[in-house]
Specification:
The structure is a homooctamer of 253-residue chains. The first copy, chain A, has 253 residues and is of the alpha/beta class. The first copy, chain A, has helices at residues 8-14, 32-36, 49-63, 73-84, 125-137, 157-165, 181-186, 209-216, 231-252; strands at residues 41-43, 65-69, 89-93, 98-102, 114-119, 141-145, 170-175, 193-197, 223-225.
Chain lengths: 253, 253, 253, 253, 253, 253, 253, 253
């Protein structure tokens, strides 16, 4: 069988071969990357700095590096203090609200997967950067371009052409407000498009709901959607598509 | 004052100069056209054939012609039977579900107003035809073009150019599903666009709600919205815009 | 053809004649005013002061003036500091939350278009002022009157008569709470009415949703709606209607 | 104490003085009229003809008469067959969908309470008639007038004046679509207004939700709301107001 | 005709006999109390202290007293400073968030109307106090009792009996969470019940929506609803009912 | 360990000891009753008669009996034809829309668990009967009583006392409309209450949503909720509670 | 009769044997624990520290101990100050936001009931701790385990086995986001599961609504739901189930 | 550039090289397959048989074959009659509601792309078959397995292992009700999962909304969502992923 047994971890747990340790309410899934191709990401939102630090330390121990999303202020300081004191390097993106801590020399293995990211507005950058951060952890190369919404459709021409020139395996298209751009792009290209609605907007349908329904209702072929502002989810979906394509490229060689 | 007193009918009613007769639960507003520039339209939906016939007969008496919307089957037969027996001509559009009954020779006075109507899909035709019907009653000339949604954006080029060649005073753009077309058109032209969401669609945001939110959230300038499937409302709004422009054209001459 | 080719900018972009430069995530649509008759407005909401300053500077360079909406405190200070140091004049409306920066002598060209603005309550003034600000940029003359909601219907008489005495080409009627005023006005006049729901209200249907549904459901003829609190959108729609009428006036002369 | 003990029936039940018999799933509240001033009404909707007949027969036995609401076709036939065979008279209102069965000579005792009912549209008649039916059972006199919505505000003048000429103790104002009429009336009179939203309408906010929010959000003083299409509830509320006022009139004499 | 002409103010306005002055965006309806039996109340929420002061000063001038609702902190200080300097007395209820300013000796004329107010929880007191404040302005006497929700049904017995001992003309019953109390009370008494949902609650249906639907769906007779937290609206509705009954009492004597 | 390993079937499947056969799109979970204490129920709704017959036949083969829910007309005829021809007995409850097919002699083993079921209205009987049907399959004894809603609270006294006289281990309380009864009962007893909202109702909050929110928002202790009209779910929950209590009774003996 | 008369307190109140004293808007239900098996819990949310102190003092007087939920900062300080000064011990759980005040020696009587609590994520701990707190007041023993959501299904194996090893009478399973865990657990065990949705999440369906619908729609047997974040409600429901089972255990012995 | 210019058709249209013919309201996008990799699919829903026949005939002319979705009864007969008379072969899947008409010998070119489809319930088959139909048109090979929902988790083991044995490039996982299966699968495999919510369900969150929110809220990595019942959309998205991977396989060889 070309794929590993999907139940490998479950079977091992049933047979008592994997322990499931909990600390400060956190139970790390150390096998996630091997099993699903995606790293375990720590969502900072709604967690105390202490909880984030515990989880981050555990993942540093087993994986050598860790990505924290939706993280600001106190939590960034707490993680930085704790982990740099044990020799970790810290990279914090304030706009995308992500933080990567890593033991020196633990770079992600490049897969050869390629993803292009486009945004409709300049306000959609944080979500795009969140997606880019997790794609980097998955070993993909990423190209980003911002602010080409349909109010001035001609602004789409140059960045879309440039993006395709990199021959991406998948596109992520982020949009708030009316959420129109993913469908327009999807109607122009033959690549799978991951549509990422953002909470930019106001009034009825604001907070991303108008953008989400537009993307779900699109009459353009070849598009699927993640939740509002879910840059991590968009990144992992696009990364799995790109890494599948990349593995076939290299397998064929 | 160039505009008539907006309270003319209310003042006359307060002074007892306008009677307010009711028959079969219907109280016709005979002064509507003079006061608002729009004809009183009978909505067939939710009314019994008898009620429609009563209202239609009254309007024939005072106006010479009447437009009935959302009308099918039994009601069409009832109106046709009643009104053709008193010498009216009947024109019924089965797709747009409108019916016009008129005394011979009672054509609407052409105003010179011009409106262009575009639809995103072929399923949006009924709403477009409903709008066209009320525009005809308001004396406007109308050009219609169908099925140029953004899944194949190039299909928009020819019909939009043709529509603008008629130099319209306003556009109506109808769309269901993702409701994207009005915003795309609005970003390309310098005319006021009346966006008409339709109940074409399915799943979450279907029944026109996804289209409505897209249009309300649009980042394109120069667009306002009527309710889902409200072809009559879109028509009257566009007609008032066009008739205002036309009156200025002729006034200047 | 009396209208310019709607695809002129798109065609030029496809042929490489328009570059699409991005700075700080912002990609200005310099051709917007010529193409759509509406200026590019910068929405301050959800943008950092830096992003606003970048966009404002670019538009000052190409257009000589710029309108920023939804702008307060730090952003106002940042823009004022940056742009007054390069010789711009700054006009800030704290109630309407708009700011205009302009090179000396760059006034909008008056079009002769005329718009009347009415509000149901005194709390709807900010949205009305936002609409007035963009209308001024479009060269229209504006008359404003506040607080004539239907709880005391007689309060409508005098301001509506005064408004009509200016012979406007279009009306904007703003209302929160029950959102009734636009339909009442629309039933009294023969002008196109742009209905502007505001987020004044409380309880079920508050935040403008009750007002929005009232306006969408209105049985009065001749009204279309923009999103909740979307003063900019209402202003541009009314401005396009008025400028179309004004162009026909002057063309006829 | 001028009011009876509100817990009289509950106390009697706790002491075993009231039995609670069930038949075919129905447990009649024979004491309702005495305790609450409102008759027990049988809702036909969602009940089988058999269930309705059982409940109707029980109420005929204890009260001499019974009002059935939301009743059509088979159920009307079944009730008529069953109850006319035991000497009852049957009055069926097809438009209001109500049926009254009564033993000869069991007329409601007139209370002297007076209620005026107004509707915005001709489609709101069924709900108004449902309210009128329960008011008749409560001994109130009722005046009804239809179709005076705000699209032609002058149509309101004559019927509202006529209604007030009867010196009603309370008004019921029914409206669908935008639901504006109750607030307009409430702003003109010093009587309590029971607002009755109806499910007339379409698109977003249709099915009465737009009307309901308008009435809940009204800025007019002196108005409370019942559920969509709840003519029975509006009638009982207005009947209790009117009967309270009537009891004070007669008590004073 | 026993009622005054409802259109008296509208007619006077149409004939130019009432001016409609606006100051700081506010257009006072001085005739409201005479026309509708309810005072004009100033909603503080969403208004600047300056706006409130302008409106309060105008009403003091014409009416001698004024009720401001939803008012806290800065606005209370501003009104107190402004109006006490011109000899007004100020009464501020911090829990109910209302403020009354009055010229000495301008007490409301007692009508003899009587209203009982009950609340389901202790958290519903602010809304009950808001209703009591406007009832006092309307000349009604009020009895208040708190915290008798259905989780301990026996707690209802004593306060409901005490309330009825005052022979009220109407009841206001306030409840948040599940909103059950108004229906329970309505099923026990023969008085009209104004149901007042409050925004006490959490999770799905919190913010008063669960309470509102319970009240709209109630199967108890004799209840109508105002919007969530709308203590003013509940007070005016109950006040009109009570004042109508009281006027009949005194008329009969 | 007193409980069986919850993963027994999963472990056996992972080791290949349980086959997972599919026929006509159906994959029966034969181990469900042993593992979860609840039978596999076939939902007829949305399935073709053929699909139901396939699933029913399989369960008859392995279990000897089968419960089908939401089943009418053609499906009942198809199942009856197919299964009575192979010697099964068929019991069909038209009101509760359930059908039980069984091999002669395959009665459920009585557990001694006891459940009481109460409904607020007579229209809630179908859901109560659906719950009773699945409880019978689980070996519980059931007592049912109908129509004791809070509009006439005294009607609750006798049936609730009778129900408690059977000393039930759990109660199911079904209610539509305002959904009040479960909270009232829960405030009176010390038993766990499974609240079952039904889709009886109309207008805003109809279709069970008002009832559901009432039950979720209840301030009474000791109540949990199943989905609207989910009689099967309510029955299984109450059955598991009762069977747990019964097992402790018999274990202790 | 094995159960006490459910109407005992209501009957005593009707006969005047229970007084219903109110202080600071609070009316304590001293009989709640005896009648319903659940303690009266004070919800701190939306109450002033003063109100909480009044209620807590009253319950200390009658019960000797009191549980306060949703309590932080000032209120904790106020209660601690007030009640420790009269000799109470205070236990405050900052994560679960609960506080217990007790007279020395007033421990809850152990019932022998056993409940297991599981959470899907580490962010669901506060709600689980809230449930645990009320279970402790009800005399139940509780086992808690955190963070075993389905993204890494194998993590469920060990904690679920450990939980079942304690032979619980009921389970509480808390989950936010997609709310999947309760259904997965319910499909594996034969115990009643109380599903507790939490407000952990983001985007569409966030704030617990997605989790709530998942739990209401579950196809797993044997699960009922409480409102979002309603740890108290989940605890009382599970406590009643467990205490019923425990009473049968001890009764049998 | 490895990808074709995305604007090729738009550029050709702007230069007048592509005509945009409309017939019966339909404007076919003949270039769609080449441009986007997805065929133009005709949605039968909401279209008259005549409209479908016109569109189908046009696509047969240009493409040789056509896929019609959501098609039943009269439309199937009409298409079959029209197109078989011109030599087309017709394949109609009644369960999936799709129809393929083709000129003999016009089979889709196999791409080597591989997709696995799993469903949670037996009621989700129609949507899965719809997805399979469009995948066949895109040249992919498909494996389908049904009914392995989480109520009996062990049923997932065998079909998921079998599916992976075919080494698919992407998975489609369809589920209604609680919509849990896609997240469970996504947590077990390293393939991109297209989640397809279906409208199977009832009560609150029924009609697919509960399933949709579950999938959007999933905490499992590597999943994106299409609209409720959108089998075509899921198929095209999975097909593009698979065809991208397949193109890399063959390119490498």
């Amino acid at each position: 069988m070309k794929n590993p047994d999907p139940f490998v971890d479950l079977r091992r747990a049933l047979l008592g071969e994997i322990e499931s340790q909990e600390e400060a309410g956190v139970r790390i899934d150390r096998e996630r990357h091997a099993r699903t191709g995606a790293p375990e990401v720590i969502y900072g939102q709604g967690k105390s700095p202490d909880q984030i630090v515990v989880a981050a330390r555990k993942l540093i121990e087993s994986e050598g590096r860790v990505l924290v999303a939706r993280v600001d202020g106190d939590a960034v300081a707490a993680i930085t203090g704790e982990l740099s004191s044990v020799g970790c390097e810290i990279a914090h993106d304030t706009l995308g609200r992500t933080l990567v801590a890593m033991r020196p020399g633990t770079l992600p293995v490049p897969t050869g997967g390629r993803v292009g990211i486009l945004t409709a507005g300049s306000s959609d950058r944080p979500q795009a950067l969140e997606a880019a951060a997790v794609l980097a952890e998955m070993g993909c190369s990423v190209s980003l371009r911002f602010d080409m919404g349909i109010a001035g459709l001609h602004r789409l021409v140059e960045p879309l052409r440039e993006t395709l020139a990199h021959d991406p395996d998948a596109l992520i298209v982020a949009a708030g407000m009316d959420g129109v751009l993913p469908g327009v792009v999807s109607g122009l290209v033959s690549l799978p498009v991951v549509a990422l609605p953002t909470s930019t907007g106001y009034g009825f349908g604001g907070d991303g709901l108008g953008a989400l329904t537009t993307m779900l209702q699109t009459c353009s072929p070849g598009l699927a959607v993640v939740n509002i502002d879910n840059g991590i989810g968009a990144g992992i979906m696009a990364g799995l598509i790109a890494n599948r394509a990349a593995s076939q490229r290299s397998a064929g060689r």
